[in-house]
User: What shape does this take?
Amino acid sequence: MSIAKKMAPSFPLVVALFLLLAYPLSLLFARSLQDANEFSLTNYIQLFTDNSHRRALFHSLILSALVASISTLICLAPAWLFANEHFAGKSLVRAIFTLPMSFSGIIVGFLAVIMVGRIGAVPQFFEKLTGTAYTSGWAYRLSGLVLAYLYFEIPRATLTLESALRKFDPQLSVAARSLGANTWQRLRLLILPLIWRPLVSTFAVTFTVSLGSFGVALILSKRFSVLPLEIFQQITGYGNNGLMAAMAIVLVLLAFVINYSARATS
Amino acid sequence: MKTARLGIVALHCITWFLLAVVAAPILVVLAGAFLDPTLLGVTTERWAAQSSFFIPGWFGYVFQLYNRSLEFSLVLALLSVVVCLVVSIPGAYAIVRTDSRASRILEEITLLPLSIPGIAMSIGLIQAYAIVRGKWWLILCGHVLYTIPLMMRVITNALRSLDLDRLQNAAQSLGANAWQRFLFVIVPNLRHSIIVGSLLVFAISWGEFNVSYLLNTPLNQTYPAALYATYTSNSFAVSSAATTIFLAVIIPVLLALQWIGGREFSRPEQAA
Amino acid sequence: MKKTVLVLISSLLCSLGYAQEKVVIQYDCIPNYANWGGVTAAYTKETGVRIPPDMKGSSAAMAALEAEKSNPQADCAYYSGAIGYQAATKGLHQPYKPKGWEKIPDSLKDPDGKWWTVHTGNIAILVNTSALKGKPVPHSFTDLLKPEYKGMVVYDDPTIQGTGFTFVYGINALMGGGADMNAGFDYLKKLDANVLNYAKDNSYNDLLRGEVPIWINADGNGLKAKYVDKAPIETVIASEGTIVMPLVMGMVKNDPHPEETKKYLDWCLGDEAQKLMAQSFFRPVMKVDLGGKVQSEFPPESAYAKAKTLPLDQMAANADAVKARWSKQIKR
Assistant: This one.
């Protein structure tokens, strides 16, 4: 059978991808390079020179990098446990861990506010205990946003790392030790190369998802803006199509760059 | 040995701490929805429906105001599952059995939406299809865009673990034509992954906000958007009740996924 | 399998059924603001026509109408006065004079019927007294500049919400400023030090819970929080005075459901609707008997002695310039 005939059943898929993905993206790209129907880079220039837009972009990058690094590192712990250890209640724990993954972003934002807002559950708890409301108002600062993003990145990072760590054979470690390698050498020469790839890809995935997160930002980003919010303001307020398109394309490109450079290094 | 045991204890501590972080907010929300609000220092709504003993009146208020959004989101989720199945099963079949450069490129493109922020695609859809902006099925398109990659990945993984050639040859030798081979041999073998994929698509579509929010109209509003409305303009009790309703739908789905799922479920990438 | 198909078919049939029902789309129809939830529910009960909630603020509603000019999705819109005026001058409304038109004072309506007031509010300082944690309740806008209120003040982003815009525009007059708006913007710049954030959305929920201790918004919302939701909210009419904010409606040009919309707009000026709006402490434009309890819960007339009514045409003409200046000088 020819390749074309073999690929025939994918026709609906191809149509769907064209209509929903290829066409809108190309249109967006074209629009971003237009200003009053002429080719121009004004939209991108405006995006990078306008103070509030530039700051929003900067915040987006910093936030995503922070969240990606923290979640990737800290989730090694549960990932390892799920992959290699057995303990009572493991499946229940694992089930609870994966809950936030499908939570809508605004729900996570709401949860952050009720937990670490000005009068969140955590500050109220601290206040009852010690008299001072620690962590009050965190929700609206960088720390709160990081926590909120971490909330839905923890399950993602854990599961990604878990499937990678499952392949790690503890016998290798035993063998290395019997050959005289100390802990540090085992870590550096044995464990690190094995988990490097999943670490990088987890970082890339969590970075991308945080970058594009809109729901959480809508509720929590009160002190400072992030790029998805700038897009939102454009569409609800000023309606500059070209600028909106440019912002969207920048988001998409950033996501692509991170993802594909992660793939390239591993 | 001691360091190893200490290490394991440390891992446990971190894990249980993270578990508490994950579970605590959900418990607080449930408390807010069911308990007397004055315990939490918050207030109630005068216009809440008559309070009965167990189900606090604010659930009634949420249902009264946002029942259309609930129905709409449920219908969207079900339709997303249907569309994904119809598009992905033949699509995955084509890709796996062809195994050429073209099919690999198609597979890459299929997984693309997972890397694209939802709000960017939402702007894309709005600008590309401005004429039909008010229509409800545009929102469905947004959902489908983000759920097809997940369904595709589940099905392609399953197909790859089957020995397709052997199955096809055996069926062919028994006289089955292409359609019969597909419908009666391949698809039944995919039952497990179809269930897993469907649950996954349902869960993602139910919670989808980034793409839907800008495509929403007052007539066609998804439930997450209604949730957002309660978070800003209603009291804590009402928002907690609304959130509890959301959780009541999604938690069983996620638990079912956990129970049935397994490896196929281990690498979803969905923006929140 | 069969069960899922059945469920699917029945849900699809239900949605088809919905396609037959009558609707009127109102942009800016926030259920918990000015009791639109109560008003629309009562209308649906009486006529069967559904008016779904819509959370857009005044400016967002106007922006949406502009974007949809060639294919209007909305039937009518509700705005704070100046924005509604602006929308009418942009040609987004069609003229219509609802029943009871004659009874509306001339200053509160457009002579051609492109917009009219349904109720009014006043810009006030809404304070969650328990969230203040012992600090004194502010009594004036100048009080809000005191360092003790750092991180406690919120007002709405004027580029999105009409009430926020009315405040940003009107504070100039209350501070004795002139046409150059410098007095107002000086004040806003100083206030910025105490501002927690510029709300892009309704902060009612936050005010109730004390997340937002001080919200500069319509007095009606504060009074409702105190008397209906029984929250520790004080509605302070500042000593410098207050701005009367007419809240207006207009019928969208080329709207999808003109007949139903006209009936709805007529009804909004009727006794029942006006009384329902009064329940959330916005002053109805029509003279209705509010009943002793609600009447007594309104602050005394003396508090409103220094209420300023700003000319809407000027406000609308300067709206874009003021919003732009605010975005440049104040916005974070």
Q: What stands out?
A: The first strand of chain A starts at residue 34 and ends at 35. The first helix of chain A runs from residue 3 to 7. The radius of gyration of chain A is 23 Å. The mean pLDDT of chain A is 82.
